[in-house]
Amino acid sequence: MFAILFLTACSDDTTITNSTIEVEDAQNTIADYLNLDISNLPDYENQDYPVHYNNQVLNNDNTPANNPVTNEGATLGRVLFFDKNLSINNTVSCASCHQQNLAFTDQVRFSVGFNGVDVTGAHSMRLLNAKFYEGINFFWDKRAATLEEQTTQPIQNEVEMGFDAANGGMEALIEKLNELPYYAPLFEMAFGDDAITEQRMQFAMAQYIRCMVSVDSEFDTAYAQNYNPAAPDNGINADFPQFTAQENLGKSLFLDPPPQGGVGCASCHQAPTFALNDNSLSNGLDAGETTIFKSPSLKNVATSAHFMHDGRFDSLEEVVEHYNSGIQAGPALDNRLRMPGTNNPIRLNLTDDEKAALVAFMNTLTDTNITTDSKFNDPFITN
Fold first, then answer.
1. Among 170, 176, 164, which residue's Cα sits nearest to residue 118?
2. pLDDT band for position 63 (50/70/90)?
């Protein structure tokens, strides 16, 4: 292996081995820029899942075999994610538009790019539970083949971070990163040598993003206490004593299909991760829609300020009303949002109490631990 990860045992207390010196040198270099102790990295590899994250749920993990999460790789990914040097003029990072305290989204409808004026073409997507999306394509419009490929596209966007072809693309960025002294030891720690490549950047950032798993919401706490593996539904459909009557009504409406008196949200947004089912099509935002949009997990949806790929809705109440009365017909519309046997969009005709109950239930999906966990915060001393 390499010296950064493994220390050679000393024969006595006075002997300092070369590997110890190298580790100390690497740590001293990193300490000038980052609040990281490379001999005691945060634990990203061992996620503590609650009981209701059973094998059926965990089998939806989209981590590819060639990029398993390691503490070293995810740590490098975290540094890259927060580093404003990844923009052409050192003004924005990935974290500028995916902010931890907002469940890794942005409070504005469209994020401001590196020049401080131009804005992105889509709303910043929440990143929580991205690892449990059953599909592999990412971005709202699914244009990236994998999460790995998705990570470096904003860097090369002419509005977002500015390393487009006109500014030298990834080659120019890699040349820039090679001049930053903290990256050599971090890449060596993660990959065995200090070579910086786009694929290694993609692997590291994807590892970090896949660690953004939300398991500590009010819903998770209640479900864990009511989980019953002997029940056909594992106990999720029973009223949770920890919930209010309104929250339980909202849960039933969300989980149950229309023939059973619900609205069937869970047929696309699968509990308990609330990540999107891969066979989901579009939700009828516009008449004649042909693009099939994906959705992020609904965990922490209530902390968002804007909703849908273009951020057109400003509240969960507006989102619920869209599904209640606003779905538009089009070629990409999901069949679950059509009236049975027709191409007409469904009309749920929910009461005001039912709409309020759905919003109340979605508020139980808020996880404040993930938005404050130190292993997801900015590692830079100054940035």
1. 164
2. very high
**Which DSSP helix (H) or strand (E) runs through 269?**
strand 269-270
pLDDT for position 12: 43
d(Cα 337, Cα 343) in Å, to the nearest integer? 9
- Residue 36 Cα distances to 78, 165, 204, 376, 379, angstroms: 11, 33, 16, 12, 7
User: What pLDDT sits at residue 382?
Assistant: 75
* CATH code of domain 18-213+370-376: 1.10.760.10
Q: Could you tell me the CA-to-CA distances from 257 to 52, 107, 214, 265, 334 in Å, in that order?
A: 21, 32, 25, 8, 15
Number of neighbours of residue 59 by Cβ within 10 angstroms: 9
**What digits encode the pLDDT tens for the residues 281-299?**
999 999 999 999 999 999 9
The amino acid that residue 21 corresponds to is I
Q: Give the separation between CA 149 and CA 129, rounded to whole angstroms.
A: 17
Contact 225, 243 (CB under 8 A): no
The string of pLDDT tens digits covering residues 367-378 is 999 999 999 999
Q: Which residues of 339-378 are buried (b: 16+ CB within 10 A; e: fewer)?
A: eeeeeebbebebeeebbbbbbbbbbbbbbeebbeeeebeb
Coil, helix or strand for 377?
A: coil
User: Taking the domains of the chain in order of start, what are their residue ranges?
Assistant: 18-213+370-376, 218-363
**379: which 2 tokens?**
């590692």
What's residue 383's pLDDT? Answer: 55
Whether the Cβ atoms of residue 30 and residue 20 lie closer than 8 Å to each other: no
As assigned by CATH, the class of the 218-363 domain is: mainly alpha
Where residue 10 falls among pLDDT bands split at 50, 70, 90? Answer: very low
Token output for 137: 């394509």
Q: Do domains 18-213+370-376 and 218-363 have the same CATH topology?
A: yes
Map tokens 């830079």 to a residue. Answer: 380
Burial class for 290, CB neighbours closer than 10 Å (0-12, 13-18, 19+): exposed
Residue 144: count other Cβ atoms within 10 Å of its Cβ: 16
